[in-house]
Write a structure and sequence with these properties.
single chain; alpha/beta; Rossmann fold; 6-stranded mixed sheet; 12 helices; 43% helix; elongated
Length: 308
């Protein structure tokens, strides 16, 4: 039944959204396929920024593009989505999130692949980034994130921080291990609170909130897609949440702008389509993160927002 559900879900979610400088169905100069892992604000913004920048850059050269966007819904459906896009003879694939990127890179060695919303390309491709792959990264300085939590919450040795993430996302485990080392160097006790199915999330968050002084959420797509559940539980228990992506549930975040991340990816895609560059000519691009405080939550939690 679960397999049947996945097939039905794939058919339902893989409906194409054509976005182009000319009407969908008319002849265009290029065709680009987007495999987006799931729908939530950060990934949606990255896709929006990608399409806007790609269209703008190509329009400067008098070129048109048809963009076919498909949402997988869950990691194990990314391979199906990528296969569907490749069957439509796309000139380039944009993979939004790590599972989408690994699926795209595994499916083709000839079609250019650009990733976005991917934390660590070297960890994703341990034997080396393929020559047809490049993109942008949503990685942020973990040391700055950890120190920001320590400073604003006045965390001390022995205080407990819970890290909430989905075990199906390899980039989340990477972030957990990084902040764990940084917190423990300051004497802060770090405990992972993990889940593999969203049906487990409420119970896991409740346990984390009961046992932690604060909760750290890495750039985990599954949590982000369900962060209203996290926010509701932690708000009731007055436990501060820190997110590594911009979110209304966090008292603060040190995060990048996903729309701008998508824009950078779109500019790269235009250069590749125009024949000016190959994916291997690009270094993976990262952005400078910005600090954002939620004044309402900070006031409720007794957190002082820095004047600067």
């Amino acid at each position: 039944m679960k397999k049947l559900f996945s097939i039905i879900l794939a058919l339902a979610l893989c409906a194409c959204a054509c976005v182009s400088l000319s009407s969908c169905g008319e002849k265009t100069d290029y065709k680009v396929g987007i495999c987006q892992l799931m729908k939530h604000e950060s990934l949606d913004k990255a896709t929006e920024g990608f399409i806007a920048a790609l269209e703008a850059e190509l329009e400067k050269e008098g070129k048109t593009v048809e963009v076919i966007t498909q949402v997988a819904g869950e990691p194990n459906l990314c391979t199906t989505v990528v296969s569907t896009l490749l069957a439509q003879n796309v000139d380039l694939l944009m993979a939004n999130a790590t599972p989408a990127l690994t699926a795209a890179a595994s499916a083709t060695t000839t079609v250019p692949v650009l990733g976005t919303s991917v934390t660590d390309y070297n960890d994703t491709f341990k034997s080396g980034i393929p020559s047809n792959v490049s993109g942008t990264s949503d990685a942020v300085p973990f040391d700055e994130q950890a120190q920001m939590m320590i400073d604003t919450l006045d965390l001390k040795a022995g205080d407990k921080v819970g890290v909430l993430y989905c075990t199906n996302e390899s980039n989340s485990k990477l972030q957990y291990e990084a902040v764990k080392a940084l917190f423990e160097a300051k004497g802060v006790v770090v405990t992972p609170y993990t889940f593999s199915e969203t049906t487990e999330l409420s119970a896991v968050v409740t346990k984390a909130a009961d046992e932690s002084r604060a909760i750290y959420v890495p750039s985990d797509n599954t949590v982000a897609d369900n962060d209203s559940t996290v926010g509701m539980i932690c708000d009731e228990k007055n436990v501060p949440v820190f997110t590594s992506y911009a979110s209304s549930i966090g008292y603060a975040s040190l995060a990048i702008d996903y729309y701008k991340l998508g824009e950078e990816t779109g500019k790269m895609a235009a250069q590749i389509l125009l024949g000016n560059k190959q994916p291997s000519d690009f270094e993976v691009i990262t952005l400078t993160p910005t600090v954002v405080y939620n004044e309402t939550l900070c006031a409720k939690l007794g957190v002082a927002v820095p004047e600067n």
